[in-house]
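Input record, target 12 of the design panel.
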């Protein structure tokens, strides 16, 4: 059973890696329901990738043959709705 309010779960996750680890290790979350949006350096637009289509290796997302630094992640979506967005930490 998925937790009642996925938005509440991700409120406390500040860093990209923390949010990704929450999806990876929380057995109540269905990985198929998540996608990651990252900023493409060349086109300057957000690219959305299904969570199950990517691999996390250190500080990089690996999607097909691309290595994307985690700091380029801008949003994490659950069933199409943003549950985590990059925010500035001072």
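The sequence produced for target 12 reads:
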């Amino acid at each position: 059973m998925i937790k009642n309010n996925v938005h509440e779960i991700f409120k406390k996750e500040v860093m990209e890696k923390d949010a990704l680890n929450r999806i990876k290790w929380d057995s109540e979350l269905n990985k198929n329901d998540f996608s990651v949006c990252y900023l493409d350096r060349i086109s300057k637009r957000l690219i959305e990738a299904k969570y199950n289509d990517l691999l996390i290796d250190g500080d990089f997302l690996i999607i097909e043959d691309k290595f994307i630094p985690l700091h380029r992640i801008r949003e994490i979506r659950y069933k199409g709705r943003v549950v985590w967005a990059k925010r500035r930490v001072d």
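Residues 42 and 68 are 12 Å apart (CA to CA).
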